[in-house]
Amino acid sequence: MKDSFELLLAGDGPGFDEVKDMSHQYGLAGNISYLGKLPSDEVYELFTKADVIINIVAEGNPLQIPGKTFELLSTGKPILGIMQKGHETAHILYQSGLGFIHEPFDIKGISNTLIELWEGWKKGIYLVQPNYDYIQSFSIEHLPSKIADVLSSIDNKAIDLYFP
Description:
Helices cover 48% and strands 13% of the residues. It is an alpha/beta fold.
């Protein structure tokens, strides 16, 4: 497997030095390219070309969803989510049918999922079952009606408060 994959890492921030150290420790340094921070259009192009996308969400507010999550969903590709299982992003990835979720230090689980995805890819087996209705609900075309629903809900609640 070592000679048959390439990992492209785009972005910056905490953890990259550790990944570099581990890649040397495990003899994988030649398989990993560090692209640094890229413009969003270049990142999206990488997403569309990837066989598997790795989405790492840092600890923090479990209800805060990174905007890139919705771009990832639009690709329909398998997504390895490395984040706290209680994070809202983990829930979205799971519901989409695209996500494989692991806690940040679950090295064995992450490795097993990557091997499973790689073996499936080799056999031509697509290991995800995208929930396209759910994924489509996050598209830009659906936002106006969602906003209208929220505003209507707020307005109705406000009326109930003032005129019980």
